[in-house]
Amino acid sequence: MSHSCFSSISGSLRSIFTSSSTSKKSKESNLPEQPAPSTQKTQPQHLAKSACLSTTDKPSTNTATNSSPKMPHSVSSNEGDAAAATPSAPPFHIAIIGAGIGGLTFAIGCRKKNVSYTLYEAAAKYSTVGAGVGLGPNALNALHMIDPKLRTMYSDISSGNLTPNKDHVMMDALYAEPNFGEDRGWVPAPFGASSYDRTSAHRVDLLNILTSMIPAETVRFNKRVKSIDQGAPGSKVTVVFEDGDVVQADAVVGSDGAKGPTRGFVLGDRWPDEVKATYSGKYVYRSIVPMADALQILGHHAGDAESFLGKDVNFITFPISRGAFCNLVAFKFTRGQPWTHDQWTKRVTKEQMVADFGGGGVDPRLVRLLDWADPLQWSLHHHMTTPSYCNDRICLLGDAAHATTPHQAAGAGQCIEDALVLSHILGQLTSAAGLARAFAVYDSLRRPRAQQVVRTSQEAGELYSFNHAECGDDMDKIVANFRQRFLWIWEHDLHADLAAADEQLKAVLSQ
């Protein structure tokens, strides 16, 4: 394909690979029982404006999470991990805000590293909402490195392509037009890599295996953050919830999603314009179709991951729940039109939903799959720029740091990579004094890569919708691009990241 199709990403990718080359290369291949909340009701002071890399952070003289007596740091006796085997009390305590994929995997990583924490979730229970989610080889490696059991458990719930000999195919590229391009002689074009194994799962199933590894007594539900105050250097971070509860921790990790409040406490004072996620120029409809019905409508296409491309539209289908269902995501691109609704979802009529794909440009079989869809437009927002993932002892993880569009199936994987790197770094600390500097190391390692995923995902969306400036509707060029663009995500050396983290952390803690 022409070099111009890659011109917008090659320079920035080169800078990432160059900066990471200094790391040593190696082969890749919730928690203490929660204390009762403090009765403190005073309003917190203004968020401390200290830089992320702080040298004024001093050891705390109190390792309790708040003014109540400290409860023991323990896990169930049948878990043979490091946290269970270590008798000494952890040197600091982390408040984790948000129990999505990122927060849960981070909590599991903290347990493995004997890092004390409590998980606070705004909802009344763990989420049971979601559709399909795909994990690339980088995400699967990160799961294994956090805890090998996670990789095994994910394998038990995930699905691949149902057609034999397509284990390494991410998706087939087809036209969304009637007859899927057959009338112009187009043959479905697979793209993937030998390093890639096609896996996808129902998001709820993934959340279930994550929550199964977190003791129920260590999670606090119905805890929506009202404010976070860092106070004076060396003091505890105070978190006030909307129900009036006040807790303290040595640091806060916000994994509360793209709309969560923690991002404002990291960026609000310094970069207020970067707090809110921005509309990416498209919305989606989602449905989960029984596989028997999907096969009747789409034929053999329903059993494999497929991407149907068209002008300003894109349909993605893939099997989930061990092949029992077909997951559908139908994208509508609104080029240049703003999202004018206060909420990120908008309910429409079924007729309006179908009209988004009318005019004869979309094969009616794809439109039939919308019979199982709730006529709800889900707008897609992202964080194209995030100047920092931390502010002293408050740190961002997952979508709170780098919400992205789903066009590279890499969002969940970046959350898991965050969890791996941050839990590893915190596991090296021997006191609370190094937390701010540890967060700065995490920021320096994770932010360039995660933000590059956000930027290149937006470009991938342009390719899927025939809006790319260079490739347009040339499917040969688009497929050639797809066969190259994911490799830097999938084949990233996470072991080298951890080695670099160790080296950088040692350097900053010795200053």
UniProtKB/TrEMBL annotation:
Region annotated Disordered, chain positions: 17-84
Molecular function per GO: FAD binding; oxidoreductase activity
Gene3D superfamilies xrefs: FAD/NAD(P)-binding domain
Gene Ontology terms: biological process: secondary metabolite biosynthetic process
Bias (Polar residues) ranges: 36-45, 52-79
Keyword Oxidoreductase: yes
Swiss-Prot/TrEMBL keywords: FAD, Flavoprotein, Oxidoreductase
Pfam families in the record: FAD_binding_3 (PF01494), NAD_binding_8 (PF13450)
Domain FAD-binding: 205-456
Recorded family membership: Belongs to the paxM FAD-dependent monooxygenase family.
Alphabetized PANTHER family for the sequence: FAD-BINDING DOMAIN-CONTAINING PROTEIN-RELATED, HYDROXYLASE, PUTATIVE (AFU_ORTHOLOGUE AFUA_3G01460)-RELATED
Protein name, as recorded: Salicylate hydroxylase
